[in-house]
Amino acid sequence: MGTLLEVKDLRTEFHTQDGVVHAVNGVTFAVDEGETLGLVGESGCGKSVSVLSVMRLIPQPPGKIAGGQVLFQGRDLLTVDDEEIRSVRGNKIAMVFQDPMTSLNPVLTIDTQIGESLELHLGMTKEQARKRSVELLKMVGIPEAEGRIEDYPHQFSGGMRQRVMIAMALSCTPQLLIADEPTTALDVTILAQIIDIVKRLKRELGMAIIWITHDLGVIAGLADRINVMYAGFIIETAPVKEIFGNPLHPYTLGLLGSIPRLDETRKEKLTPIEGLPPDLVTMPTGCPFYDRCRFRTEKCLHENPPLEVSAVRHSVACWNWQDVVKARGRA
Amino acid sequence: MATFLARRLVWLPVVLFFVSILTFFLGLYGPGNPINIMVGLKANPETIERIKAEYGFDQPVYQQYFNYVFKAVQGDFGYGLVKYRDQPVGRIIAERLPVTIQLNIAALVVGVIVGIPLGLLAGLTRNSWFDYSVRFLSLIAVSIPLLFLLPFLTFIFSRRHDLVLNAANLQFAIGPFLPMVGGHWDGILSTKVLLPILIESLGIVAVLTRQMRAGIIETLGQDYVRTARAKGLRERMVLLRHAMRNALIPIATILTLSIGGLVEGSFLVENWFGIPGVGQLALDAFTAREYYIIMGITLIIAVAYVVANMAADLLYPILDPRIRSSK
């Protein structure tokens, strides 16, 4: 399988009154055709900004893509003209957003909102677009789709609206689906349904997925590979089993330690990661995780570790990952 | 929909009752009365009594009120007492109402034509020099009192101002002249009404500009606009189909509610320019304590506001589907 998307040294910043916020600081990753990549990290770590930069949907100003390349099928999306990026958006790369309550236009019917990409990218007529929209709604499991196509977003529940969003995103059979925390605003039961739908559609349509979440539990059964992000850096990347079975970065270890597990005998407490991420305006010169790290050394204070290969298909940005392995062995 | 309308219409008489009772008693208990103005302060007390009896002002207040209401429901709203002596109030107001309505509609049209594009452009070029100037000017437009603006603009536009710089042998003229109404109404198409319309529209322009600017900035920041962009739509489509529709909802509300103000003449503008409209009539009526004219004008304005509110309520569900289905 070939590489579909290659992001190289992407840097995105926001120019605010308080100074320049370094939201994404040289992120490099790739997505293969048909692969599901999980992008994990806490709020404000640059997950959403990274993918919005890929789509060039960062509001400018105050945002600015300061550097890097986004190669999609060999073309750098950051340098193509507006016409060309528009022909990619919604067509080859589609996006599902976090909050289905606000991401659909309240004054337009579902029909209009799904149909407009079909008319735009596939040159369908209104009639054809409408027929296709009904099929899409059926595909994402909306009952009585024919009768609901003329409805407005507020007439759907949250879970149903997210299905509509997914139908909208899949309308032009994209090669890459970016899901930006699509389940965060939903009930847990609905969450499971949405994940099932996406898994099924991925099997049927064979698209690649970037799934952003702060919830490792959500991603475990879904992703092929996981990128862990922290303070605008990717600090660990590995196949999903590796991340759960052999976490090398202290932060990843901390993330896993803060999830309750049902399959283990009850420990005394969940272990939270103490402290807060660094201020993205005044970034430290050393490792961004330094303040919160149990394994920190003098070197971490002065030098930011690069993302380096530690095992097959496993990279980590930590000077002391061997210590993490040892500590894990003792525990 | 019909039941909704009926329910609102039931309230109309209630509103009118309270408005009329308040106006009536304020008129009677306020200082001064039309008889004094009619016959002068030094009139023979017997004459005053006789005229009072003739007009029914000697009866108890509630009796007078009931008489008024009784006649009013039959379409007789009383008559002029002093300046418009013995003319029926209905006719006096009917003569002046079209003038005021035309003037206000013209001002509203100017307001929409200028205010909405101005606000839109300002919102789209947020924090540019254009945006700053629009914001500054609209702030000034709502803040400067008419009492200053009327003589100032009249002075500027009513005569030729020549600035002569002798040393440089230069001569400037600030124009253009605008003809003044000067007491005679030539209809809304006359150039004489340009200045009054301009002045009346200033406030509307300012309000609509600010609302449009704020509205477009707000809607462009909404998630659904990001969704629209993520679909690959052209910016023009994003703006027209996704952002404008939502930004225009509050504008439509403002416009519908301003229907209420259409029958309400401006005291200052109409009197300054001598425009024979409701505003001028109202000022005449107040100074002469013309009870019946004041009542008539107040009631018409009350009806207009009730109707405007009703229209706004009917309009909401058309503009916003979220309200449509919840009813």
How would you sum up this structure, described in words?
The complex is a heterodimer of chains A (331) and B (327). Chain A is of the alpha/beta class and 331 residues long. Chain A has twelve helices and twelve strands. Chain A has helices at residues 47-54, 82-88, 110-122, 126-139, 145-148, 158-170, 188-205, 216-220, 240-245, 250-257, 298-302, 321-330, and strands at 3-16, 19-32, 36-40, 63-72, 75-76, 93-96, 176-180, 208-213, 225-230, 233-239, 308-311, 314-316. Chain A has an eight-stranded mixed sheet, sandwiched between helices. A four-stranded antiparallel sheet of chain A has the order 2-1-4-5. Chain A is globular and about 65 Å long. Chain B is mainly alpha-helical. Chain B folds into two domains: 32-76, no CATH class; 91-326, MetI-like fold (Orthogonal Bundle), CATH 1.10.3720. Chain B has helices at 2-29, 34-39, 45-55, 61-73, 89-124, 129-143, 146-158, 194-220, 223-230, 235-257, 267-273, 278-287, 291-319, 321-326; strands at 161-165, 170-174. A two-stranded antiparallel ribbon of chain B has the order 1-2. In chain B, strand 1 and strand 2 form a beta hairpin. In chain B, helix 5 packs across helix 8 (194-220) and helix 8 (194-220) packs across helix 10. The longest helix of chain B has 36 residues, at 89-124. The model of chain B has no long low-confidence stretch (mean pLDDT 83). Chain A binds chain B through residues 55, 57, 59, 86-91, 94-95, 97, 99, 102-108, 116-117, 120-121, 152, 154-155, 165, 168, and chain B through 221-224, 226-234, 237, 241-242, 245-246, 249, 319-322, 325.
